[in-house]
Write a structure and sequence with these properties.
By secondary structure, this protein is mainly beta. The chain has 4 helices and 35 strands. The model is unreliable at 1-35 (pLDDT under 50). Its main location: membrane.
């Protein structure tokens, strides 16, 4: 269930003191920090997956791909360690997931997706996933779902904390080395947070080709990588009603592109750089809040190999957002806003001239609770894109607390949503083959579910079951022509399935246990196509597993910690006719650590982790080798 209303957002509101009539002095009560209305407040009826600081703790020097792959039943298509990792929420493609940082979509405008292997966990306090279409709430690309990266340097718990910091070093198999540093400071006026991380690996792991006794061991070549990331966040309180925030996020990654098994090594390599800057101002009162945000991104991809030489791509994105929220009543709130984006792309594949494009959208979000146990939301968004604009995209959701008796609570929820995806710059402008006349993809979906909670003083059990179904029209597909490939609106795709999850928390004393389990059944098939589309209908789409499972446990006792994760990924077809496939596989990982107090304000965590402990030979993506059993050792120093 979503939380209660609270007061509107984000600054310090004074609590006026009463002045007795028989004295000349007055007493000022301490200022208080109140929470704002998060976007999820208007996402009634939608499923929410959250990886909090406990779930992310063992992945601080890793990536969002590592954490999601181990802790959820979400499928990520991985081309190798440190290589491209793309998400597939509810059977859709990576271009159908919106990835948000501080409210801004960070998907590459040229590709329409984000590489999850380039999103570090360090500097992120929480990873939130909302599966399902939600274009009205989050905008372009929120067809299969939305991922939100939170770095709450200005959360209520951080105000007045003073100085604090963390440093960590890692050493592991196949030349793995990593390090991170994070420091923060806050008083009642200013909150600052700085983080840096670095990660590298040779990835010269052995793998086998062939079958049975004829298997031959080889050592992986041309798969090394190095990644660095820097973030800086600052929040300044302006009086009692205003708040100014700014953030910088810089990433730089150089990696060799791992060749496929049995293919020639062309010494391919890629340099990925991102520079993200944003600033926002928020002003609040007891009934209103207004926010303006602006951002500038620069994404650089330079690719080189022995056959095609150098290909360079630079895309700059300027964005602005404004929104106003009214608290109409204790049980009703409305948010009205708009955003504008400007893209400027200098890409070798587009020709010599730079390409520019503007996109706009306006939205209205409404939350109303007619009864204490009933919550409703209705959201609308209209986008303006080059060419034919998408239709109005509404979202309606409801949640009902059907049972609240003692330790038991049962909620029923559901939503229906229309969403859209604008064609990427590559799909519109690539030469030869780009198609500027492409239509936006449109999606309509609905889901229904129930959530059950059982809670005592030492135990909490949360279970959730969700069923969903959606259709995506005008699905863009690249098809071969006489001399080159070109994208066309050829497909209608139906995605449907079931998602189940359970979380158990138990703390009878010094011992603490958190156990999580999740399962996803995903059926994604093409239901209609054009004459030019040779792919058959009624077949599971390639690289979409029908079954995925994730199980994990976290144990803590007197400074000791033990963690386990077990994931299963079912078979995946590798062609559109659903004849060839990769077999399913199990992965077992474990970690053990001890936190030691080395001084009154200092702690040291020693953490050992093992991956693929059963030494399975498997492939996540066709003909891309992955390492067998491997391990790492981390030393983490925490101050205050």
């Amino acid at each position: 269930m979503l939380g209660g209303f609270g007061l509107l957002a984000g600054a310090v509101l004074p609590v006026a003191a009463q002045t007795p009539t028989n004295t000349l002095r007055s007493q000022q009560l301490p200022a208080v920090r109140v929470a704002g209305l998060r976007p999820t407040r208007f996402a009634v009826g939608s499923r929410q997956l959250v990886l909090d600081s406990v779930a992310l703790n063992n992945y601080r020097s890793g990536t969002v791909a590592d954490a999601l792959g181990a802790r959820t039943a979400i499928y990520l298509k991985n081309y190798g360690p440190g290589q491209l990792s793309s998400i597939a929420l509810r059977g859709t493609s990576a271009r159908h997931t919106a990835v948000l940082w501080n409210g801004f979509n960070i998907n590459l405008p040229s590709l329409g997706e984000a590489d999850f292997a380039l999103l570090p966990v360090n500097g992120t306090t929480q990873v939130e996933v909302q599966p399902g279409p939600a274009g009205a709430t989050y905008g372009n690309g929120a067809v299969g779902g939305t991922l939100r990266l939170s770095a709450a340097a200005n959360s209520p718990a951080d105000w007045g904390r003073g100085w604090h910091g963390t440093a960590q070093g890692d050493y592991g198999s196949f030349g793995l080395g990593a390090g991170l540093a994070k420091a923060g400071f806050s008083n009642e006026k200013v909150a600052l947070r700085t983080s840096f991380n670095y990660r590298r690996a040779d990835n010269d792991f052995p793998f086998y080709i062939g079958e049975g006794r004829s298997r031959v061991q080889q050592r992986q070549k041309n798969a090394a990588f190095r990644q660095a990331s820097f973030t800086q966040d600052a929040t300044l309180r302006l009086g009692q009603r205003g708040e100014l925030s700014a953030a910088v996020w810089l990433t730089d990654a150089g990696r060799q592109i791992q060749p496929g098994i049995g293919t020639n090594n062309t010494n391919a390599q890629e340099r990925d750089q991102s520079r993200r800057l944003m600033a926002s101002y928020r002003r609040v009162s007891t009934r209103r809040e207004w926010t303006v945000r602006t951002a500038w991104f620069e994404d650089v991809i330079n690719y080189r190999d022995d056959l095609s030489g150098l290909s360079e791509s630079t895309v700059r994105t300027s964005q602005a957002q404004a929104e106003h929220t009214w608290r109409l009543a204790p049980n009703a709130s409305v948010r009205l806003g708009g955003e504008a984006q400007h893209f400027a792309a200098q890409v070798d594949g587009y020709g010599a001239a730079p390409r520019t494009e503007n996109r706009y959208s306006g939205f209205l979000l409404l939350r109303y609770d007619p009864r204490p146990r009933l919550q409703l939301s209705l959201n609308l968004r209209q986008a303006v894109l080059p060419g034919q604009p998408p239709p109005l995209t509404p979202t309606a959701g409801a949640e009902w607390l059907a049972l609240a008796a003692g330790r038991h609570a049962l909620s029923l929820k559901g939503n229906a949503s229309r969403s859209y995806r604008a064609p990427t710059l590559n799909e519109r402008y690539w030469r030869p083959g780009g198609n500027p006349n492409l239509l936006p993809e449109e999606s309509f979906g609905y889901e229904a579910g129930l959530a059950y909670t059982y809670k005592t003083t030492v135990l909490t059990l949360q279970n959730e079951l969700t069923a969903y179904r959606q259709l995506v029209d005008n699905w863009v597909q690249w098809t071969p022509g006489d001399s080159y490939w070109s994208p066309r609106n050829l497909r209608q795709v139906r995605a449907q399935g079931l998602e189940a999850s359970s979380t158990l928390g138990w703390q009878p004393g010094a011992y603490r246990l958190t156990a999580r389990g999740s399962y996803a059944f995903t059926s994604t098939e093409k239901t209609q196509g054009a004459a030019a589309d040779a792919d058959p209908v009624g077949r599971q789409l390639p690289f979409v597993p029908r079954h995925t499972v994730a199980l994990s446990t976290d144990h803590g006792w007197r400074g000791w910690q033990l963690g386990t994760t077990l994931t299963y990924t079912g078979y995946r077809y590798t062609d559109a006719s659903a004849t060839d496939f990769l077999p399913g596989y199990l992965l077992l990982n474990a970690s053990v650590g001890r936190t030691l107090a080395v001084a009154p304000a200092w702690q040291l965590l020693v953490l050992a982790q093992g991956f693929n402990l059963t030494n399975n030979t498997y492939q996540n993506y066709q003909n891309r080798a992955l390492p067998g059993r491997n391990a790492s050792l981390s030393l983490r120093l925490l101050w205050r």
